[in-house]
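Q: Okay, next protein. This is Ropporin-1-like protein from Nannospalax galili. I've checked the sequence twice, so it should be correct. Can you predict the 3D structure?
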Amino acid sequence: MPLPQTVFCAQQIHIPPELPDILKQFTKAAIRTQPADVLQWSAGYFSALSRGDPLPVKDRIEMPVATQKTDTGLTQGLLKVLHKQCSHKEYVELADLEKKWKNLCLPVEKFRAILQLDPCEDKIEWIKFLALGCSTLGGSLITAMKNACEILTADPEGGPARIPFKSFAYIYQYLSGLDPELPAADTESYLATLKEKSESKKNGMIGLSDLFIPKRTI
């Protein structure tokens, strides 16, 4: 026996009042983030939204800075997204971090290559992973520190990108310690000079204008 046809009218279809705003915010987020795989990113977006977690959304659209031949997909903006998602924990589980990485449509090979710079078991200190990510964006150690400052700062975009000297020193010592050709004395001398600068300002902060190229860089 055939099932009776169901006739719907506008009064029978219930549309949640919050749906239009959810879709509007989702569209804006997708435009800002420009995900390489919209479906993969969307799954991560709505999963985070349902849990009340920080969303995988960039603050603004980033202009491409790498050629198609060398571009691995990782950008300062995407690292900042990961920082918003992970910085509430001192240590992050690698499985969870890899999932967030994939939701940003980044190649898993790049994720594993970053971890090979300082191998660990099941979890990693978040600030160290962020530092490794900054170092893989290219350039010298100072370039990596500039990226770190711009991600960690509470200053408005385009500002001095200041962060506490203690945070700067921790990241700098960590990255410099991974380079066997960089003498520890050079690192200590460089940080001592920056510490004097931060203390002279009486705020304990270091910004982009304070950075200079030390004797040797990585």
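A: Here is a summary of the prediction. The longest strand covers residues 91-93. Residues 138-218 form one domain.
Q: Noted. On to the next one.
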